[in-house]
Amino acid sequence: MVLLLVLLLAQGSAELLVEQLASDDVEVRVEAEARLLELGSKALPALRAALRHRDSEVGIRARACLERLEVRIDLTPALIALPGLEARLLEGGAEA
Fold first, then answer.
1. In angstroms, what CA-CA distances link 45 with 3, 13, 42, 49, 56?
2. What is residue 2's predicted lDDT score, i.e. its pLDDT?
3. CA distances from 43 to 9, 75, 92, 93 (A)
4. 96 in a domain, yes or no?
5. Residue 47 lies in a domain
6. Interacting residues of 75 by C-beta distance below 8 A, sequence separation 6+
7. Which of 26, 36, 39, 96 has a CA-to-CA distance to 8 between 20 and 30 Å?
8. Number of domains in the chain
9. What residues make up the domain containing 52?
10. What was the pLDDT predicted at 72?
11. Considering the domain boundaries, does residue 67 fall inside one?
12. Would you give the end-to-end CA distance of the chain in angstroms?
C-alpha cells in the first residue's frame, strides 16, 4: 500500500494532488496547485470532482485551478508567455 502511494505521488496523480489541497501546510497546498496546473488538461477530471469535495477549501482551490487551466487551454503558447496576460484575463480585463 505504501509503495502504491509513493508511485502515485511520483507520477503526480491529480487525485492525490487534489487531496494535498486540504493540507494544513500552506507550502504543500501551493505546491499541489502548481503541480495540478503543470498537469494541464490531465488534471481537469480530478479538479472537477474536487468541486464537490467535503472540504470547502479544496473546492475553492480546485475552482481557481480550473479557471486558470481553462484560460491556458484557450491561449497559444506565445500568448501564455506574455507577462500578466493570464492574470488580466482571469480578472476579466477588457484591455487584455
1. 24, 11, 7, 6, 18
2. 56
3. 14, 17, 23, 26
4. no
5. yes
6. 85, 86, 89
7. 26
8. 1
9. 2-91
10. 81
11. yes
12. 48
